[in-house]
Amino acid sequence: MATVTSLGEKMLFPGCVIPNRLPYIEAASRKVLERLGYKLLDMNGATCCPDPVGMQALDQKTWLAMGARNLSIAEAAKKDVVSLCNGCTETLRSVNHFLNHDLHLYKEVNGILKGVGKEYRGTVDVQHVVAAIYQDVGPEKLRGFVQKPLTRIKIATHHGCHFNRPTHVIDPEGKLGPWDNSTLMDEMLEALSATVVDYDEKYLCCGYAISLADATPAEKLDMQKFKSLITAGADYLCVACPSCYLQLEGVQRTLKKEGRLDRDIPVLYFTEFLALALGFTPEEIGLSFHAVKPKELIDNWK
Q1: What is the pLDDT of residue 181?
Q2: Which residue of 21, 39, 92, 211 could cross-link 218, Cys pair, CB 3.0 to 4.6 Å?
Q3: What pLDDT shows up at residue 5?
């Protein structure tokens, strides 16, 4: 068992989707982060990030002001932020990028924030939870925390489109790998003794955004992805984004009803797999709340 070293205090930004629709993912994330040595602080008063695509396209100034207000909460506490969502990470890092590179926008946004008693200074960093664990702990040290290896569990990974894009904002130093070939989850899952399955459609979009307008093309994307990972021998799919989770889990009901998919592909968030490897039980992290039940893990992970 690895010696737990304090990784300092971090502000946890769980976003909107996870606390409201997937609270078991937040529970698993809190448990593993604390076990690894982080001290988590809640961002009391935080709002939606907001969404990096739709909201920014609708009204960029409002998007910037809302994001800057969230960051100001962490700045007041002088703590960096760890985020559980690809979209939230993109928004908060993008707001930092825009405001720190445009003095006019910086002043304009702070003029808005002054009306609610806040000030943005650009003094805190934001990391996705997967990137934070990879950089602060890393695969080698992670091995020492494993209490129940994920032996014989065959997992396909899906980092998601927004995990490290746009790269000049999310990963300017190149620590997360190429946008179309990130392997952070793969490396850490292998450190937990899982079998990580490579498959042709690993970096195919989940289709969540387009599904909001038209479900049909999203279903085609997902069926293509499922066929690819099933052919490669995967039994589970590991994701890093709540939107990807909802899409890739939720679409399975339709695909099975229409006879296009003949088996379940349980979708787990990265910290859920990590929690199991660190010795937490399926009950402790709420695996039974999944729509597509990881029955083998629920029944046999003792």
Answers
A1: 77
A2: 211
A3: 74
> Low-confidence residues of the chain, pLDDT below 50?
none
Spatial distance between the Cα atoms of 2 and 192, rounded to a whole number of angstroms? 13
Strand order through the sheet with 195-196: 195-196, 154-158, 236-239, 267-269
pLDDT for 2 equals: 64
- Using alpha carbons only, how large is the chain's radius of gyration in Å? 19
**How much is the pLDDT for 4?**
64
Strand order in the sheet with 81-83: 38-42, 8-13, 81-83, 126-128
Domains parsed from the chain with CATH numbers: 8-128 (1.20.1050.140), 146-300 (3.40.50.11810)
Cβ atoms within 10 Å of 16's Cβ, excluding its own: 17
The predicted-structure confidence for 98-152, as pLDDT tens digits, reads as follows: 999 999 999 999 999 999 999 999 999 999 999 999 999 999 999 999 999 999 9
